Amino acid sequence: MRRLVILTAATLVAASAAYAQNADAIKQRREAMRTIAQAGGEPFRMMRGELPFNMAPVQAVLKAIQDNADKFKAGFPDDSKTGSTDATAKVWEARAEFNAIIDKWAADAKTTAAAITDESTFKVEYPKLAATCGSCHGARGGYAPGLSDSFKRMQTPLQ
Ligand code: HEC
After folding, report:
1. Cα–Cα distance list, 89 to 58, 78, 92, 143 (Å)
2. Residue 150 CA, ligand 1 centroid: distance in Å
3. Distance of alpha carbon 153 from alpha carbon 33, whole angstroms
4. Cα(72)–Cα(64) distance, rounded to whole angstroms?
5. Taking the domains of the chain in order of start, what are their residue ranges?
6. 2-153: what CATH class?
7. Residue 65: CB within 6 Å of ligand 1?
8. Which ligand 1 atom minimizes the distance to the CA of 76?
9. Alpha-carbon distance 69 to 33, whole Å?
10. pLDDT tens for residues 36-88?
11. How far does the centroid of ligand 1 lie from the alpha carbon of residue 145, in Å?
């Protein structure tokens, strides 16, 4: 009986440690994605012609992608599949492909930053990079919900 109690206690401690780790990783990756998505708001509206072209926010989102890609990529340990997350099981099933999308995204953000020098280059280069969001979000990517659902999620505070 005593042995059982000790074993049960040990299991509980292990389970709560794993849970804490989960929550941290999930928070880390969601924070990284939020930083990018927030920085992307203005350039996205410029792309749709709803705001006039402005270089500073464009370069800021391209930098945010490069700065946060590794943090995002590191936020998916095996014990973070469940919890306060929208990531689908495909992240872990197709991990190499998922990581490759992130690496290419960061590399493309760097070349795009150099390629955009004015409004006309923005109009050509930016939509190509923005299409990467759809490589993961929605039915085509399958790693995360559609973008409009993910943007709604961003309205609630991160725990
Ligand atoms: C490499 C795949 C990938 C790419 C590329 C990607 N996302 Fe995400 N995104 C995810 C995953 C996975 C989640 C879910 C994270 C979680 O809940 O654990 C997510 C979550 C989000 C969220 C919700 C953040 C929150 O509050 O939890 C927003 C908003 C978002 N992405 C916007 C974007 C935008 C905008 C782009 C393009 C600029 C983009 N994403 C590109 C995979 C990606």
Report:
1. 32, 11, 6, 7
2. 7
3. 12
4. 11
5. 2-153
6. mainly alpha
7. no
8. 18
9. 9
10. 999 999 999 999 999 999 999 999 999 999 999 999 999 999 999 999 999 99
11. 8
